[in-house]
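Before our next group meeting I need something from you. Please put the record directly below this note.
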Amino acid sequence: MGFSGHHARKRFGQHWLRDESVLQRIIEAADLQSTDRVLEVGPGRGALTERLLAAGLKAVHAIELDRDLVDGLQERFEAQPGFSLHQGDVLEAPLELSDGRIADKVVANIPYNITGPLLERLVGRLDRPVDPPYQRLVLLVQKEVAERIRARPGHSSFSALSVRMQLLARCRSVCPVPPRCFQPPPKVQSEVICLEPLPAAERVEPALAARVESLLKQAFLARRKMLRNTLAGVAEPDRLKELAASAGFSLQQRPQELASATWVALARGLNRGD
């Protein structure tokens, strides 16, 4: 019974977080309240689950893919008030809690091979954000991805993902997580990040968001080229120069040099000309 004989499985991207200080930083970053309903993705053997339940929350709902871990988790936590568990793939499983309600917050040690699609499921896309949004997401991700999410314009890590996420949420780093904090240790560095999705009133409206997304896809396909080349075709050359000047950038710049607000300004100018 329990977890005896179970070993971390590479195909599930399993690396058990065991560092007490990092676990505590995750709990602190979640800013837990007694009324919170928390969705935990990938509880593993329950190191973080135990701390979530100890916080006296309204509910903790965990989704675990590995069938062989489910019995151990049930045995360990089923007597805890507010605990529920679903076995399945978080990319396909219902995210509602056992009573059918939506969680307020998400805590997840994300398998690195599903980071992109899981972010889309939990935060949404520019033109289709999750609504209503979660209050807060505290995610353990690969450091490279964390750097891209929170990078500022001009940084080598700034990318289309940076623009998308920063237009959808306030993003900040919580703490670095070196390989030694896991069992078994991964081959990459990790980081805990905190995302606070923007309320509807602060998000980019759908038609404008769709245009921003189109621009990002086109421009970042060749991120080292100047925008006069990567944006060629979105408008007549003279019109594009006018739009660039109005949005406050030069076509001699490269995609990673433009702030999120600048992409929105360019998209707005293009939409006005449609």
Notes: The longest strand covers residues 169-177.
